[in-house]
Specification:
five-stranded parallel sheet, alpha/beta, TIM Barrel
Length: 612
């Protein structure tokens, strides 16, 4: 076979028009556009993509290691560092010992969360860990310059070259609070001066996780991370730091969420746009390749309920991060939302990355997304939207000005509220929390204490649903039984059974004991239910006469249950409320109002000592 010959040349390549014609034929009268779906990123996703969607994209033909580094900054492999996060209290010796054990059991590096940099025992650290061969990083809320000065001074006394240090210093007041004081600017300049001759140790960190952890869209996460990085660059170069030194020391900490393909496209788009920023500074294009990206699995999608599902979440999140070319990765333990992680959960988290490398061989393929019509198109669209938002921020005077005038936080809040609404309506699924609950789950922590704990993350996606579940758990512990919801189905219509099943899953997710009961008529239902022990009675019926008749009669129940109709009454809502119904549950309704209503009922019962 000659080079010009092609396999299966008798088959005509399918064009976008061919796909559209065939799809429309299958859809018949349904418009093709009905298959599109719209994302929080402002991107419309088509049902299929073809070669025509990527033929004009300039980066498609570029190889790994080529500018603008969409496919990563190396052409040899896709290796990443498996970094374990470890909290270091006091002198940090127990944390250092834990780090030694982690490094011996598969971790490629550690990230210490240093609570008190002044008391952290640097000498003990250098005794236990070879800092020139192991990647050791530090999250420092205090003065990182003093901490690093102590480290560099000690290394000098021990005749250890600081040039061989590996890791990064995580200190990012800019993205955390939206501005940089003069003192903080001086501190970061000092960190930069210390680390500029340590080529594998990064001193200027921008945490995109400050945006993703409060529900930002991926477009916002990329745009605001870039904008904060530019703000740091401008501040430091104005203070006299060389541009090349600032760009060489830049590291982005990014979250990896559950939107698998979008997360793959996110880091590719980030590298593409960072190269554009470097180019705009008229700096050496090779400096764009120096950018290091550290990914961590998302805290926003972690759940307290059915926490073992978090093991599955972090696996797909980790996969998307490494497939998109993250330089290092931290996998959060599955129980980190509600307690200090133990040896088991930390080992499982560490082994996720190890399995992806040692058993799945994801380190062997550079940019597996290359050539995918969908992922290449998605990378371009995400980059385009993020760049437009970035320019909008710059037009307002840059990151600090846009943060101060409220633009950045208000835009994130708008997106996060939509996400919370979608979770409340069941459109966004959190497995084990708002769908597919584990009815036999045993909660082995004090829910009341957890909710009141200062470090309990109330910004997470699952939090509103979890609060309801905690209320039912307290009810169980105080009254030795779960609150009960009876779903009364009156009649035989299929629609009623659909609404009833939806209501049953909702209350199961809220931790209720649920029971569907079938009745042929209102009289039988009222007779059976009037004395039944239940905190909630859900009525699934669509006939107006049944609806008007049932509510007033069941409201005479001695324990005064919350009465909910499993249907959307539309124009009859006011009338049905007047007839005794408290709320209405159906697909796409706002679950948060029902959660609030039922939680108030449970709180009232507890305050009354269980009396109705």
């Amino acid at each position: 076979m000659t080079d010009e010959q092609k396999l299966f040349s008798e088959f005509k390549p399918g064009t976008a028009a061919d796909w559209a014609a065939r799809t429309q034929k299958d859809l018949r009268e349904t418009p093709l556009e009905s298959l599109n779906w719209h994302t929080y990123e402002g991107i419309t996703i088509k049902p299929y993509y073809t070669r025509e969607d990527i033929q004009h994209l300039p980066f498609v033909q570029q190889k790994p290691g080529d500018f603008p580094f969409v496919r990563g900054n190396t052409g040899s492999d896709n290796n990443w560092q498996n970094i374990q996060k470890i909290k270091a209290l006091g002198n940090g010796k127990p944390a250092i010992d834990k780090a030694v054990d982690a490094l011996n059991r598969g971790a490629d590096g550690v990230l210490f969360i240093v609570e008190d940099p002044q008391t952290f025992d640097i000498a003990y650290l250098t005794e236990q860990i070879d800092l020139t061969s192991q990647s050791v990083s530090y999250t420092l809320n205090g003065d990182p310059a003093d901490f690093l000065k102590g480290l560099y001074t000690l290394l000098s006394k021990q005749n250890i070259s600081h040039r061989n240090l590996r890791g990064f210093a995580n200190y990012d007041p800019m993205s955390g609070k939206g501005q940089l004081s003069d003192d903080e600017n001086k501190i970061i300049a000092q960190v930069l001066d210390l680390t500029k001759d340590s080529p594998d140790f990064y001193g200027v960190t921008v945490c995109g996780t400050n945006f993703s952890s409060i529900g930002a869209s991926l477009t916002q996460e990329v745009a605001y991370t870039l904008s904060a990085a530019v703000a740091y660059t401008d501040r430091l170069t104005t203070a006299g730091e060389p541009l090349g030194s600032v760009l060489r020391n830049m590291l982005f900490c990014m979250g990896a969420g559950t939107n698998y393909f979008f997360e793959i496209a996110k880091l590719r788009a980030l590298r593409l746009l960072w190269a554009a920023v470097v180019e705009a500074y008229q700096a050496d294009p090779a400096l764009a390749a120096k950018l290091r990206i550290h990914s961590t699995t998302s805290s926003w999608y972690q759940t307290t309920l059915d926490p073992y599902v978090n093991m599955l979440r972090v696996t797909t999140e980790a996969m998307s991060a490494v497939l998109s070319g993250a330089d290092s990765l931290t996998v959060l333990p599955f129980d980190s939302t509600f307690k200090d992680s133990d040896e088991f959960s930390e080992r499982i988290a560490r082994n996720v990355s190890i399995i992806l490398k040692e058993e799945s061989y994801l380190d062997k393929a550079v940019d597996p997304a290359a050539g995918s019509y969908y992922l290449e198109s998605l990378t371009n669209e995400l980059a385009t939207n993020a760049w437009e938002l970035f320019k909008e921020v710059e037009a307002q005077g840059g990151f600090e000005a846009a943060y101060e005038n409220g633009f950045i936080l208000s835009s994130i809040t708008e997106v996060s509220r939509q996400k919370f609404r979608d979770i409340a309506q069941g459109r966004m699924v959190l497995v084990g929390t708002n769908k597919y609950p584990n009815p036999k789950e045993q909660i082995d922590f004090d829910p009341e204490e957890l909710i009141q704990r200062a470090e309990f993350d109330t910004t997470r996606a699952a939090y509103p649903t979890e609060v309801m579940r905690m209320a039912t758990e307290l009810h169980l512990r105080k009254r030795k039984r779960r609150p009960r919801a009876i779903i009364a189905v009156i009649g035989q219509a299929a629609k009623r059974h659909i609404n009833a099943s939806f209501a049953k899953e909702f209350f199961s997710c809220a931790g209720f004991e649920t029971d569907i009961q079938q009745y042929d008529d209102v009289e039988t239902a009222v007779t059976r239910l009037l004395h039944a022990a239940a905190e909630v009675v859900v009525v699934s019926t669509s006939e107006a006469t049944y609806a008007r008749e049932f509510g007033p009669r069941i409201s005479q129940h001695e324990s005064k249950p919350t009465i909910i109709m499993a249907d959307d009454p539309q124009h009859m809502k006011d009338e049905l409320v007047a007839h005794g119904y408290d709320e209405f549950i159906f697909e796409d309704c706002d679950m948060s109002t029902i959660l609030e209503l039922v939680q108030k009922r449970l709180d009232r019962d507890e305050n009354n000592g269980g009396k109705h």
